[in-house]
Structures are given as structure tokens and as C-alpha cells.
Amino acid sequence: MRPQNSPRAKAPRSRSFEVQEENTLMPFLLQALHDQSRTAVKSFLAHKLVQVNNRVTTQFDTPLKPGDTVTVGMNKNAAPFHHPMLNILHEDEHLIVVEKASGLLSMGTERDKTKTAYYILNNYVKNKDPRNHIFILHRLDKETSGVMMFAKNKKVQEILQKNWNEMIRERKYVAVIEGCPQPKQGQVKSYISENKALIVHSTSSQDGKLAITNYTTLKSNRQFSLVELELETGRKNQIRVHMQEIGHPVTGDPKYGATKNPLHRLALHAFKLTFIHPVTGKEMKFETPVPTKFTTLFK
């Protein structure tokens, strides 16, 4: 059955299929898209319009197993997205999930309104249709890399922002910190606020907002530790403040106490985001690899 056209004729359409038995991608697509030619199916792959479990793939021999979801964007006239500091992990008519590189702002400042994830993605959706727009949901610090998402309409933004704590199931980071925390696994809990110099610090419960960070040491040597961090709250600079608070600042972060910078960047990466889709109600999981630079310190 053909998908129904969207009321906005130029908006990209997509079709999703659930895999019932083991297969590889090309034969599965040829069977599922029986109304499309082999050349057209190859073109969808080449234009990065095929996703398996919310991840774009161009590999025709990608293995499939029962329960996998294959999504095909049908608008191959839209220019594929390419940017050296931004990678789209998932896009549907409601949301865009991306991996941001270190050094790129999430959104504009007084000094820089264009070298931002928001500006780049807004241009991308407007190139498809001038009426399109994206909406900010959360942010990553400029020097933090990793997974973040944007809404594609105001209603979705409002649903997520009003129900953020319930709909965001998991937010995990990895970081390289100075020294070796003791105990190797623990929780940091404090009230934090921002002063006039834009430094976030711990304060009293009357003056600050509650911030909770859970950490687990994954690897360590004499100088550094690789830690996994899970946020229970999402305050500005929370991880950086909490690591400084326990005496193990994130490397490359002199603002919050670091004295070493072995990777020539803030060693903080948002590697995992799990949330409930605000429209479909499905659980969405996105995970990116730990940056190679981080792990090479422990070889």
C-alpha cells in the first residue's frame, strides 16, 4: 500500500517496515519496495535515505534480524546532509537527532549566530521546504561532543519540554578526568547556581537547583580515568562542576579546575540518549562510540 501524501506537498515522506525474518538489506528493500525499480532502491541507499533502527546506512549487505525497523525516505530530490561537525543520526517529521562535534555551539550567542548546530540544521530543513523550522530542546556545551536532538515543530518542543524528566529515559556521557576517583563508583549530589561571571558552582538549597550525577570508572592509569556519567538532572555545566567538586576535573577544562589537557579538547562526550518519542510513544535509543582519542590514553 502506498503511503498517503502529507498535506504539505513538499515535505519529505517516508515508509517504515518491520523485519520478520533474517535477511540482508538489499533483498529486503527490493521485496518491501516492490513498486520501485532496483535502480531506485540503489539511489535511496546512495542518497542516505535508508535507516535501520534509526541509523542511516548506505551498505546494501547490512544484516537484518527479526524485529529490526527499516525506514526509507522517499524524497531523493532533497539534498543529502553533509557537515564536518554535525552528523544526522535520525530524522522524521517531528524530530532530528544529531551527533555534534567538539567546537560547535549548540545555539547562537551574541558573538556567533551562524557556527551553531541550530543554524546549520535550520538551513538544512528550510532547503527542503522554506516553511520548515527547528526548535531547541536542550544544549551541549560548545566543547562537548555527542548526541543531542531538536524538534521540528512547536508542539513537539512543548510536549518534550513540559515532560522532559518523564520522557528522557537515559542521558549518559563519557569523560576523561584527572586522577582516580574513590570510590570507583558513586553519586555526586549538590545544589548549583551560576554567578555573575558565568561560573557554575555549588551553593545552598535556597540559592541553587538540585543536581545529581552518577559516575562509574571504566578505566584508569596513574594520571587519568575514563568514567561513564549518567545525569539524573540536566543543569548547566553539571558534570564539569561535579567532577571538580570531587577533586577530579574533566581534562581540558581549566574553567572548572583542570590542570592537564592531553587531548587538546574538553574530554566530555554525550554518548547515549534514550527517550520516548513525543508523537509515536516508541522508545528511541541512540548511542555513539566513545571517541578514539579518549580510549588511546589507556592503551
Structure explained in plain terms:
Belongs to the pseudouridine synthase RluA family. Responsible for synthesis of pseudouridine from uracil. One of its GO terms (biological process) is enzyme-directed rRNA pseudouridine synthesis. The chain is α+β, with helices and mostly antiparallel strands and 299 residues long. It folds into three domains: 73 residues, RNA-binding S4 domain (Structural Genomics Hypothetical 15.5 Kd Protein In mrcA-pckA Intergenic Region, Chain A, Roll), CATH 3.10.290.10; 82 residues, Pseudouridine synthase (2-Layer Sandwich); 103 residues, Pseudouridine synthase (2-Layer Sandwich), CATH 3.30.2350.10. Helix content is 18%, strand content 33%. The protein contains seven helices and 17 strands. A hairpin with an 8-residue loop joins β9 and β10. The chain is globular, with a radius of gyration of 21 Å. The protein starts with 13 loop residues before the first strand and ends with a helix.
